[in-house]
Specification:
single chain, alpha+beta, 3 helices, binds guanosine-5'-monophosphate
Length: 123
C-alpha cells in the first residue's frame, strides 16, 4: 500500500491539525488519542512516511527503528506509567483493524487493563 500523505497523522506531523503532545524527539511524536479507551491512551508515531508496522520494519533505517521504540519507552516514562505498568500495541492491516494508515503504537495505562485480548476464533 502506498503512503497517503493526506492521512490524519501526516497532517498532525506537519502541524496542520492540532494534537495534545506528550513527547517529541527526532524520531517520533507522541500525543493523546482523541477517543481514549483507557484513562491514559497515547499514540506514538514515527517521523517518516510509513504505512504500518510491516512497512516500518521492512523499510526504515535501523537507527529510526531503534529511535522509535526508544521513544515509545520514553513516552511511557513521561506519562509516569513505568511503575504501574502499561500495554502497547500496533494494529496492523485488515485483520489488525488498523484505521489510520500511518504506523502508530497505542500506549494504554492508568488502570488495570484486563486480559490481553478476548479469544478470537478463526472464521
Ligand atoms: P488504529 O485503529 O488505526 O490503530 O487507531 C487509530 C486511532 O487514532 C484511534 O484510536 C483514533 O481514536 C485515533 N484518532 C483518529 N483521528 C485522530 C485525530 O484526529 N487525533 C487524535 N489525537 N487521534 C485520532
Amino acid at each position: 500500500m502506498a503512503y497517503d500523505r493526506d492521512n490524519i497523522f501526516a497532517k498532525i506531523l506537519r502541524g496542520e491539525i492540532p494534537c495534545r503532545k506528550v513527547y517529541e524527539d527526532e524520531h517520533a511524536l507522541a500525543f493523546h488519542d482523541i477517543n481514549p479507551l483507557a484513562p491514559v491512551h497515547v499514540l506514538v508515531i514515527p517521523k517518516g512516511d510509513y504505512v504500518s508496522m510491516d512497512d516500518f520494519t521492512r523499510t526504515a533505517a535501523a537507527e529510526q527503528v531503534a529511535g522509535f521504540f526508544r521513544a515509545v519507552g520514553e513516552t511511557a516514562r513521561t506519562l509516569g506509567l513505568e511503575k504501574s505498568g502499561y500495554r502497547f500495541l500496533a494494529n496492523t492491516g485488515a485483520d489488525g483493524r488498523q484505521e489510520v494508515p500511518h504506523f502508530h503504537v497505542h500506549i494504554f495505562g492508568g488502570a488495570p487493563l484486563g486480559r490481553m485480548l478476548n479469544k478470537v476464533e478463526a472464521c
